[in-house]
Amino acid sequence: MAGARIGTAPAATLEQLLAAKEIVVTCGAGGVGKTTTAAALAAMAAVHLGGNVLVLTVDPARRLADALGLEALGNVERQVDPVLFTGLGLEPRGELWAAMLDTKASWDDLIRRQAPDAATRDAILANPLYTNITGRFVQSHDYVAMERLHEVHASGRYDLIVVDTPPSRSALDLLDAPGRMTEFFAGRLIRWLTAPYRSRVFSAATRPLTHVADRILGARFLSDITEFFVLLQSLESGFVARAAEVQRVLADRRTTFCVVTTLEPAPTREAGFFVAELAERRLHLGAVVVNKALPDWICERAPTAAAEQLRRRAGEVAGELAGPTRVPAERLERVVRVIGDSYANYSVVANREAEQRAELSRTADVLVTVPLLEEPVHDLAGLLALGEQAWR
């Protein structure tokens, strides 16, 4: 990022954390505002830190394009129009870019880069099995997402990349995908499928089985499978090397993770689960962002005491208001009691949330609490409003 980086001491704010990192991976349960938070952090970084900032979503949430003023998002990064910032009275120090993973396009690009020659490249891209595997298998999406992250990071085009992942359990599949690719090339399945092409004796012995399978399952079914994996194996060294590089990038000190949650029971459990998984993998947890939290002032003693007095003196307060409002005193008394009771209930919840936040604060360098916003986030102004709540 533009400007000096902080040292090795833990960051005290999100601004310090993002200034010191090159990749921020946001994780969390579904419905906690993870995509919105990722975009807000990227927007704030572009405004305040400078440099080129990319928000990359591997979770197909197209609402991100709308919030950034883009007609659509795809594999090719697109810059958010600087006019949108100036229209809000801002002069960003850097540029904000956005992209959404296109699994098929990413695989095609990967094959073109990794194929040892044009003939192998064309044979893989034309193989019927290739389209099915790259378009339908979840594991394919996971691996190429991490490959895409590595590609844009290694390109040097961006000073900061903020990654929006799928919900927690699926996000772990992303983290494990490079290792599974390495295991795949070393596994028995690919050795068995490619053995007929590597051994004349084995080929002669299995040729009848291949013909029978093709007659039962369709013309060249098993042959297409075998041919595909033989072609794929020619890319083994590149795939394995890239998988190792991706794992190194995730564990690098320039990469950090940001867990986004609310304090509802299910998201909190998911956040705790993911925090534990990051610790198990020795990956850096830089921040926990608690969204839609009650404000701290609800826990303060004076307002709570005032609400209690309101409950106790409901009849007296109602009597004072009955004349000016021309509402019967007994009806007003019920209203006053409901107001006092509601505040007391909010106070109980707010204190419980404060305890939960204190527990979460022990797990990350930075704990950020973002209150429930009055309006849903649907544009750049909303993203920056959310970001301002979290930034310092």
Description:
- The protein is α/β, with parallel strands linked by helices and 392 residues long.
- Helix content is 61%, strand content 12%.
- It has helices at residues 14-19, 34-48, 63-67, 82-86, 103-114, 118-126, 128-136, 138-155, 168-186, 188-198, 200-217, 221-233, 236-251, 265-280, 301-312, 314-325, 329-360, 380-391, and strands at 23-28, 51-57, 78-79, 94-100, 160-164, 255-261, 285-293, 366-371.
- An eight-stranded mixed β-sheet has the order 3-4-2-5-1-6-7-8, with helices on both faces.
- α10 (188-198) packs across α12 (221-233).
- The radius of gyration is 27 Å and the shape is elongated.
- The two termini are 17 Å apart.
- The model is unreliable at 2-7, 199-206 and 212-219 (pLDDT under 50).
Features:
392 residues, alpha/beta, 8-stranded mixed β-sheet, 18 helices, 8 strands, 61% helix, elongated, disordered N terminus
Topology:
Layout: H1 14-19, E1 23-28, H2 34-48, E2 51-57, H3 63-67, E3 78-79, H4 82-86, E4 94-100, H5 103-114, H6 118-126, H7 128-136, H8 138-155, E5 160-164, H9 168-186, H10 188-198, H11 200-217, H12 221-233, H13 236-251, E6 255-261, H14 265-280, E7 285-293, H15 301-312, H16 314-325, H17 329-360, E8 366-371, H18 380-391
Helix pairs in contact: 2-18, 5-6, 5-8, 8-9, 8-13, 9-13, 10-11, 10-12, 15-17, 16-17
Cα Rg: 27 Å
Which ranges are low-confidence, i.e. pLDDT below 50, for 5 or more consecutive residues?
2-7, 199-206, 212-219
Share of helical residues? 55-70%
- Biggest pleated-sheet summary: 8 strands, mixed
Strand order of the largest sheet: 3-4-2-5-1-6-7-8
- Class by SSE composition: alpha/beta
What is the succession of H and E elements?
HEHEHEHEHHHHEHHHHHEHEHHHEH
Instruction: Give the overall shape.
Output: elongated
Please work out how many helical segments DSSP would assign: 18
The rounded distance between the terminal residues' Cα atoms is 17 Å
Number of strands: 8
Give the integer mean of the pLDDT values. Answer: 81
Which strand-content bin applies to the residues?
Answer: 5-15%
